[in-house]
């Protein structure tokens, strides 16, 4: 088994991150520094990371949905002892085993993060080959013109190259009188729109991509919330809360990643953890109005 796959199977991190650990000389095999691409025997070789031996997890893989609040850094470790900013690890201390976030969500943004100890699934979720869509609810200042929508849909030229076409739709608009139009989105001649909520779906994962796309077409982002990764929805979780994926969600995720999935035998309903360590109300698994609307749009496009 390749060294990076072995590390991922032990639940340390994704394969890509494992390669970085090997390249940095942080992995030892039988007392010697490991090299990228080397083969290891899980039963006979002794693999160490941070002075501890790694073992392949024999238990079932874990998959959680976490609502990352704004201001929280997508990391499981602080860069230094003096670092005081909140990180993801601060909110999931009650999860047994070692899970880690798949992908990133910038500090100023909020929304869904998938946490898992499944290295293969994590690798595929972040690999461009599998085209896993990510959907954001983006609140921008003022009105949005048809030309701005067209540019976002066709692809925007950024400093690191053009983006791929995005799925973009207006979800609601708020006037200066506080009126919210969600159905016909009609704007009277004398009504000034103060903010617009968009749904933007992309299949790429560049750094701060949504913010840069909006900036490129002259839109000021007020709030950015990721509401879906593929068909896995944030639902009605509150900032800082998390819950295990349902079996149906796991099946959808594995199918989108071309990975096999066998549902375990039912043993009753498991409690859903939150940041307070208490079960979430059953509605925590339901879809919000905006997310149901998003799913209908995706089905129409397909």
Q: Under CATH, the topology of the largest domain is which?
A: Alpha-Beta Plaits
β-strand percent reads 15-25%
Identify the CATH class of the largest domain: Alpha Beta
Order of helices and strands: HHEEEEEEEHEHEEEEEHEEEHH
Number of separate helices: 7
Low-confidence stretches are 183-187, 281-285
> What structural class should be given to the helix and strand makeup?
alpha+beta
Protein architecture, described:
The chain has 302 residues and is α+β, with helices and mostly antiparallel strands. The chain has three domains: 51 residues, Structural Genomics Hypothetical 15.5 Kd Protein In mrcA-pckA Intergenic Region, Chain A, CATH 3.10.290.10; 109 residues, Pseudouridine synthase I, catalytic domain, N-terminal subdomain (Alpha-Beta Plaits), CATH 3.30.70; 97 residues, Alpha-L RNA-binding motif (Alpha-Beta Plaits, 2-Layer Sandwich). Strands 5, 6, 7, 8, 11, 12, 13, 14, 15 and 16 form a ten-stranded mixed β-sheet that branches. A four-stranded antiparallel β-sheet has the order 2-1-3-4, with no helix packed on it. A two-stranded antiparallel ribbon has the order 9-10. A hairpin with a 2-residue loop joins strand 1 and strand 2. Helix 1 packs across helix 2. The chain starts with a helix and ends with a helix. About 3% of the residues have low confidence.
């Amino acid at each position: 088994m390749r060294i990076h796959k072995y590390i991922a199977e032990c639940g340390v991190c994704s394969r890509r991150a494992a390669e970085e650990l090997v390249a940095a000389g942080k992995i030892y095999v039988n007392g010697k520094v490991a090299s990228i691409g080397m083969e290891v025997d899980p039963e006979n070789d002794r693999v160490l990371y941070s002075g501890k031996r790694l073992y392949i997890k024999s238990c079932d893989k874990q998959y959680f949905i976490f609502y990352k609040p704004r201001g929280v850094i997508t990391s499981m470790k602080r860069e230094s002892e003096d670092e005081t900013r909140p990180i993801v690890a601060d909110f999931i201390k009650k999860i047994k085993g070692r899970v880690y976030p798949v992908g990133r969500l910038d500090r100023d943004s909020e929304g869904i993060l998938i946490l898992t100890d499944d290295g293969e699934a994590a690798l595929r979720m972040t690999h461009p080959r599998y085209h896993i869509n990510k959907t954001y609810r983006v609140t921008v200042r003022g009105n949005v013109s048809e030309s701005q929508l067209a540019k976002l849909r066709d692809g925007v030229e950024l400093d690191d190259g053009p983006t791929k076409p995005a799925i973009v739709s207006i979800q609601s608009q708020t006037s200066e009188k506080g009126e919210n139009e969600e159905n016909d989105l009609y704007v009277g001649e004398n009504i000034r729109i103060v903010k617009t909520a968009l749904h933007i779906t992309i299949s790429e994962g560049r750094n701060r991509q949504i913010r840069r796309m909006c900036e490129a077409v002259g839109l000021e982002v007020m709030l950015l919330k990721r509401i879906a990764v593929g068909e896995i929805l944030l639902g009605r979780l509150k900032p800082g809360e998390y819950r295990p994926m349902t079996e149906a969600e796991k099946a959808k995720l594995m199918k989108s990643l071309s990975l096999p999935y066998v549902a375990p035998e039912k043993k009753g309903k498991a409690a859903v953890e939150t940041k307070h360590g208490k079960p979430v109300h059953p509605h925590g698994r339901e879809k919000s109005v905006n997310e149901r609307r998003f799913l209908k749009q995706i089905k129409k496009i397909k």
